[in-house]
């Protein structure tokens, strides 16, 4: 059973941050902290093949001084329909242009809707009115739940579907500060805020602790570090014959 909530500092406000353990969500956590929020992180064990990211999420939460990090179990693998939750091949070595057209097989049906809904429920319990998500429409334009329209629609829903909003206790806001940033801009912002990207995980198809280096997430991450002119701390699998 959850214990009592820790006391807030004098000027702090609580916020719920979706934290996957990836590059984007780590940056968002650092941004929320920098804005003076007391950050409560939610991570999800949803049947994903890259469940190693949960270890990274715990490490990121500790490193960035989150108030707490909770892991919520939601079995989206029971439905499948995604290369991340079913026995489907993860696309490899795609051109970045191809990633921005159509809905990729790595899209998990309704994942961000489910995660934000649970974040909203926890925010009501906390007395928080700010939700943070690392959605990014520039790099992942093929994901329907990473678009500005989705963020705006969910925020509207939050303010008509909750007792806290309807009773006038506050107005919910969904913060997606990375929405229109490039991966290089995200990395530069995170470095400025002290994010250690060596403890983050982005790969869709890892081998143990190592990133595959060939899935969409690995390609975008690697290109982001290159464009940002920041050393890439990711440990990739070294394939035979690879440069």
Structure commentary:
With 243 residues, the protein is α/β, with parallel strands linked by helices. The chain has a single domain, classed as HUPs (Rossmann fold, 3-Layer(aba) Sandwich). It has eight helices and five strands. The protein has helices at 23-34, 53-63, 96-99, 111-126, 148-158, 163-166, 183-192, 216-228; strands at residues 13-18, 37-45, 68-73, 130-132, 173-175. The protein has a five-stranded parallel sheet with strand order 3-2-1-4-5, with helices on both faces. α1 (23-34) links the parallel β1 (13-18) and β2 (37-45). The mean pLDDT is 92.
Which helices and strands appear, and what pairs or packs with what?
Elements: E1 13-18, H1 23-34, E2 37-45, H2 53-63, E3 68-73, H3 96-99, H4 111-126, E4 130-132, H5 148-158, H6 163-166, E5 173-175, H7 183-192, H8 216-228
Parallel strand pairs: 1-2, 1-4, 2-3, 4-5
The CATH homologous superfamily: HUPs
End-to-end Cα distance, whole Å, is 51 Å
- Sheet with most strands: strand arrangement: 3-2-1-4-5
Structural category: alpha/beta
Helix count, DSSP H or I runs of 4 or more residues:
8
Based on the structure, what is the oligomeric state of the protein chains? single chain
- CATH class membership: Alpha Beta
Q: Which fold does the CATH topology refer to?
A: Rossmann fold
CATH architecture title: 3-Layer(aba) Sandwich
SS elements, strand count: 5
Contiguous low-pLDDT stretches (5 residues minimum) are none
